Amino acid sequence: MVNGGWKWNVPMKISPELQKTFLTLGREKTLSPKTTLLAEGDISRHAYFILSGSIRLWHNNDGADTSVKFFLPGELCASLQSMHLEEPSRYELEAISPCIVRAITKSELHQKATETPGLNDYFNSIMVHCLVNYQDLFVDRIAKSPEERYRALIEDDPEILEVVPLHYIASYLGITPVSLSRIRKKVRSAKQM
Fold first, then answer.
1. Where are the alpha helices (H) located in the chain, listed in sequence order?
2. Domain limits of the chain?
3. Cα 122-124-129 angle, rounded to 5 deg
């Protein structure tokens, strides 16, 4: 379903009534690029539903910026580990571009999930979807080359390549921007053959 230029990017179908209920949660915030929503070491108190723009989850690995996940309109993002376990986050959430989000507190999420039929199932499907994605990311980092992971991005998540700056893509793939440039050139050359 398209709402104001975005589609629900969720792992399960939800009814229009549930969509409306969900979009009343939290409060709307406008973010500038580079706005930090959650700093490493802080305890996450909010989840963010993205209405426009893009956000990344990243980790500072001894001074090296490692992008872990990109979130686009129609997705819910948070540091699940920090929010669920109420422990300091090992990650940062940062706006990549100008964004409009709904900032939803953990207590409001829990309250609405118990009050609203279907909402708890929706949240559970998001959690399972995230776990599967992180498991795939972990295995891909071990089993696939950066070029194979880049080709998978082209195939599976082309919209990320349209909106996320290349230096963040390189960070996500675990390579330098120069290496990414070589891979992109090789992939383009292979397409032209």
1. 16-22, 80-85, 106-115, 119-143, 146-156, 158-163, 166-173, 177-192
2. 16-116
3. 95
- Asked whether the beta carbons of 52 and 100 are under 8 A apart, the reply is yes
The stretch 65-94 carries a mean pLDDT of: 91
Measured in whole angstroms, how far is the alpha carbon of residue 2 from the centre of its chain? Answer: 19
Domain 16-116: CATH superfamily is Jelly Rolls (2.60.120.10)
Percent of the chain beyond pLDDT 90?
55
Nearest partner of 50 among 13, 75, 24, judged by Cα: 75
Whether the Cβ atoms of residue 55 and residue 96 lie closer than 8 Å to each other: yes
**140-184 tens-digit pLDDT:** 888 999 999 999 999 989 999 999 999 999 999 999 999 999 999
Q: Are 10 and 74 in contact (CB under 8 A)?
A: yes
Q: In this predicted structure, what is the pLDDT of residue 193? A: 66
Structure-block tokens of residue 103: 């900032």
Q: How many residues does the chain have?
A: 193
**Between the CA of residue 152 and those of 34, 45, 120, 140, 156, what are the distances in Å?**
27, 33, 31, 10, 6
